[in-house]
Every structure is written in C-alpha cells, then in structure tokens.
Write a structure and sequence with these properties.
With about 280 residues, the chain is an alpha/beta fold. The chain has helices spanning about 85-90, 125, 130-135, 140-150, 165-180, 195-215, 225-230, 260-275, and strands spanning about 15-20, 30-45, 55-70, 75-80, 100-105, 110, 185-190, 215-220, 235-240, 245-250. It has a 6-stranded mixed beta sheet, sandwiched between helices. It has a 4-stranded antiparallel beta sheet with strand order 1-5-2-3. The structure holds adenosine-5'-triphosphate and magnesium ion. Adenosine-5'-triphosphate (ATP) binds near residues 41, 83 and 85.
Length: about 280
C-alpha cells in the first residue's frame, strides 16, 4: 500500500504551522483550526493483487473537514474505523498535507496508534527521546523522564527494552515520551486502546490530573465513547469515510468526573446515537 507521509519541520516557538491555501482569520485564537480539509490516498484498485496492471483508485479519507480547537481544550474524536481519524491527527502534526483546505495548528506532537518505541533503547531512554532531540543532555532527559515513571507505574522498568514490556507498559512509555516533548498540542491516537480496563481507567484519571496542572491542548482519538465523554470538553463525532464532523457534543461539567455523572452519561448517549448505536446505549 503506498504511503504518502511527508515530514514537515514544525516551528518550535509557538508560531502556527500552516498548510494549504489562504489564511484563517480564526487561526490566531485557536490551538488548531482546519477549514474545508480533504485528503485522499492512492490505493491499489479492487482485486489488484491478482493481476499486475489493475491500476489505482483514490480512497478519500477526509472530505470537507472543518474544526477549531481552543487553547487548553480537550477535544475527543470518535468515528467509525477508517473514517480518517489518524489522517486528521497526522495533518494536525504536519506529517501530511491536505489536498484541499487549510490546516493551522500550534506545534503538535503525535502519539501514534502503534507505539513505535525504539527496540534498542531502554524504556527510560525511549521516554526521554523527545527531550534529548530538543537538546537536553542525557542526564537531564533521564531525570525528567524518571519523574514520570513512578506516576505511570513504570518504576523498576527504566532499563527494560520494549520487547520486555507488556503492551500496556509500552503504551505508557510512549505516552510519557509524547508528554515530555513539551509541545503545546498533543494529538493522541487511541492512547489507551491497548490497555486492560483497570489500567485504562487509571490512565484516564492520570491524564485528567496532568491536564489540570499543565495547560496543554489535546485532541484525543478514541474508539471508547465513554472515555470521550469522561475526559473531553467536547466530543466530535465523525461520519463514515470520507470523514467530516457530524456532531459536536459539549460536556459541560468540571473534571475530574465520575463515569456516572449525568453530563457524562448524556454525552455518551448522544455520541452513540450519532454513531447509529442508540439502541445499545
Ligand atoms: N498511507 C496510506 N495509503 C493509502 N491509504 C491510506 C493510508 N493511510 C490511510 N489510508 C486509508 O485512508 C482511510 C482512513 O484511514 P485512517 O487510518 O485515517 O482511518 P482511522 O479513522 O484512523 O481508522 P481506525 O479507526 O481503524 O484507526 C482508510 O480507508 C485507509 O485505508
Ligand atoms: Mg486510526
């Protein structure tokens, strides 16, 4: 399958990274603003595995996607598999460019759906990678990462290689690395997807606590509608491919929240209804 990922350097000083045509009047006030964004990929034509020259078809991941995220806001994105959620985050992080429309975001870091830890580094050095790349010494980077390890339940595993960690532990190391990047916009792609229910609940509480003490903007892609309602200021429900925003559901109650809080239950119910799963809510 052809990939069209492109690296694009991000400004480090809080200036907006822009792509596409035109300027967004609104972008200055937003941590992220997308306007009319479309993105297609080339993929082998259906049945293309059997014969050599079947050609290509376009798969439109996103079509006419518009959204704005305010500084300090936590926006959750839910939608059917394949509707362009990962594509959306890659656009926000400047790893892809839109075919049409504009993307304007503060410097952003992506926590990808797969953890992408480096197999030859220990857990602490994997977590500290972004700090090292930003120019810190190894000792400084390890000290900053080490402070997060206890909080994340990773104490004692600082030197473990990724293959010696459980799936949930790898995910937490990747999360630490994302957080330590220091970028103002965190794009988290199913960060708790691989975790068991108990660890996931702990990590959700921890994320809420971190966001209460640090002013970060978060775009959280999740398949877990309850998680979205529990953590987000606003839940965006995307349509099937090509993805665009079908519904915006505000969750107007302070964090930390109980799973049984009326506002959480109502947001969950509305999101499930928008996804056509109302009967199972
Ligand atoms: N590099 C690529 N090359 C070709 N097609 C791609 C590429 N990346 C994504 N796609 C296609 O674009 C569509 C959207 O993919 P994307 O990964 O953004 O969806 P998603 O909403 O994150 O899905 P999931 O919930 O399963 O993670 C899919 O049909 C996928 O096959
Ligand atoms: Mg995805």
């Amino acid at each position: 399958m052809p990939t069209e990922l492109q690296s694009r350097p991000q400004p480090r000083d809080g200036r907006l990274a822009r792509s596409g045509a035109g300027e967004l009047a609104q972008a200055g006030a937003s941590a992220a603003a997308l306007e009319g964004v479309s993105r297609s990929y080339r993929a082998p034509a259906r049945g293309g595995l059997r014969r050599r020259s079947r050609g290509e078809r376009a798969v439109q991941a996103l079509g006419g996607m518009s959204l704005a995220v305010a500084p300090g806001e936590l926006v959750a994105v839910v939608g059917p598999s394949g509707c362009g959620k990962s594509t959306l985050l890659e656009l926000m992080c400047g790893l892809q460019r839109p075919d049409a429309g504009t993307v304007a975001c503060l410097p952003a870091v992506l926590m990808p759906q797969r953890d992408l830890l480096l197999g030859w580094l220990g857990a602490l050095d994997n977590a500290a990678l972004g700090v090292r790349i930003a120019g810190a010494s190894r000792a400084q980077a390890r000290e900053r990462a080490g402070a997060l390890f206890a909080e994340l339940g990773l104490d004692g595993f600082q030197r473990a290689r990724p293959h010696e960690l459980s799936g949930g532990m790898r995910q937490r190391v990747a999360f630490a690395r994302t957080l330590l990047s220091g970028k103002p916009l965190l794009c988290l792609d199913e960060p708790f997807g691989a975790l068991d229910a108990i660890t996931r609940a702990q990590m959700q509480d921890w994320l809420a606590a971190v966001l209460a003490r640090e002013r970060r903007t978060v775009v959280l892609v999740t398949h877990d509608v309850e998680e979205a309602a529990l953590l987000a200021d606003r839940v965006l429900v995307l349509s099937p491919r090509p993805g665009r925003v079908l519904a915006e559901i505000p969750v107007q109650t302070p964090r930390p929240r109980a799973r049984t809080a009326p506002a959480v239950l109502e947001a969950r119910r509305r999101a499930l209804a928008e996804l056509g799963m109302g009967a199972t809510a």
